[in-house]
Each structure stands twice: as C-alpha cells, then as structure tokens.
Automatic annotation (TrEMBL):
Gene Ontology MF terms: hydrolase activity
Family: Belongs to the AB hydrolase superfamily.
Domain of life: Bacteria
Domain Dienelactone hydrolase: 20-235
Signal sequence coordinates: none
Keyword Hydrolase: yes
UniProt keyword annotations, A-Z: Hydrolase
Protein name as annotated: Dienelactone hydrolase family protein
Length: 248
C-alpha cells in the first residue's frame, strides 16, 4: 500500500463552513481523484477511513462535509436537515460543487480525472453533479437511488454504478424501478446491484446512537459493495496500485 498524508480542509458551502478530510498518496505527481460523500448523518471516521483507503490505492480523495463540521446523531435532526436538502437539487449541487472545487484545486489532483462516490445523501449529491453536466469519469452510489428533474439525467457523461439492499424500505422496488427507468431513458451507462437481505445503510458499521427504522449493517455485503466501488474505479479511473484494500 502507498504511504499517505491527510489533512482537514475548510471551505464554504450551503451557508456553512464545511470541514472535509483530504487524503493524498505521498509524492509530487498528479493523481486521479475521488470525491467521497457521506450518509445523511454527516462526515465521520467511516468516510475518513474510506478516503484513506482510496489514497493508499493511489487516489487523491476528499471526503466532503454535509453539516458544517457536525455529525447529526439524532435521527430527527438529521431528517430535518436532509429531507429538505434532498428535495432541492440546486442546494445539493452547491454542496457538491464547493467540495469538487476544493479537490480540483488541490495540486496533487489531476482535474481531468475525477470520480464521485457517495453513500445516502452523499450519493444523491454525486448524482446531482452528474445531472448538472460535471465532467466525471464515474459516479458510484450506495443507498442513493434518487431521481432528478426531467431531462437532466441525459447530461450525465460517465458510467453510473448503484448499490442498494433488497430490504431497504427507504429505497423500495418502486424507487429502484424509477431510478433505472430514468437512467435507461437518458442513455446512461448504468448498473444496479441489489444486495440480498440488506437494509438501508448496510455498508455502515454499527453506530452508538439511535437510527431510523430499516437501517442495519451487513458486513458481508459491505465488503462486497466496497469491492464493487473499487472495481468501478479500476475500470473508469485506473491506477497501477493493488485495488483490493478494505477500510476496516
């Protein structure tokens, strides 16, 4: 694995001062980069470790913030912020663009080789960047089968991979069907993986606070989803390092 360095980065977005986590391979050359978005609770050590794992694979990786440096462990507070956000594509795009600008202006980043990967709300933001016509090499999402405004999905110019648990009550079959129909109608190169028996946020290790119903960790599928994300990057944004790391 490549030796890495990490640092926090502050930047304005959505009327807040966001605090992201930037992980870089040691060196001076420009690297392909990954913008990494968290679940609705916000940036935590889970996403920081994922960014570090991506840096170990050779990517410049920025785990971006959603809530101005806060982690919303109270489900009601989280929903009160995230539901209006998810209903407002322009706000989501603003948060995504602000983080993307930080990553693009990092001297180690190759600005022409960036992918966006996100979980839950962070995945919805990744999709909205694609619908806004941002030039990305790939978009990967877990638990984020959101649909967009009519016609805008045709602006996505890269492959889209999506993962969801079969028993996710927040992303039920009707939502899956609406998402895939939108991708297909827009001519997007899309894939959907349904992980059998998994709930919402199946990729996220257990947390020590209440969660909304229908959320649960599935360690086997969490590892499989990570491998699927890494495979997407290997296909669309390759580096020469071993692409089998798992952020434990």
């Amino acid at each position: 694995m490549t030796t890495i360095t990490t640092r926090t980065v502050e930047y304005p977005a959505d009327g807040l001062t966001m605090i992201g986590h930037l992980a870089l391979p040691v060196g001076a050359d420009r690297r392909p980069a990954v913008l990494l978005g968290p679940e609705g609770m916000g940036l935590s050590d889970v996403e920081r470790r994922r960014a570090d794992a991506l840096a170990e694979l050779g990517y410049a990786a920025l785990a971006f913030d959603l809530h101005g440096g806060r982690y919303l462990s109270d489900p009601e507070e989280m929903l009160a912020r995230c539901l209006p956000l998810l209903a407002d594509p322009d706000r989501m795009r603003g948060i995504g663009h602000a983080a993307l600008d930080v990553l693009r202006t990092e001297p180690r980043t190759d600005p022409d080789r960036i992918a966006a990967v996100g979980y839950g709300t962070g995945g919805a933001i990744a999709l909205e960047l694609g619908r806004d016509g941002v030039s990305l090499r790939a978009i990967g999402t877990v638990n984020a089968l959101t649909t967009g405004r009519p016609g805008e999905t045709a602006r996505i110019r890269c492959p889209v991979w999506a993962g969801v648990g079969s028993e996710d009550p927040i992303m039920p079959p009707a939502q899956r069907n609406a998402f895939t129909a939108e991708m297909q109608a827009a001519g997007v190169d899309w894939r959907l993986v349904v992980y059998g028996g998994a709930l919402h946020a199946f990729h996220h290790p257990p947390v020590g606070h209440p969660v909304v119903p229908g959320v649960g960790y599935h360690p086997r599928h969490a590892r499989r989803a990570w491998r699927d994300v890494v495979d997407l990057l290997a296909e669309c944004l390759p580096v020469t390092e071993d692409l089998e790391a798992w952020p434990r």
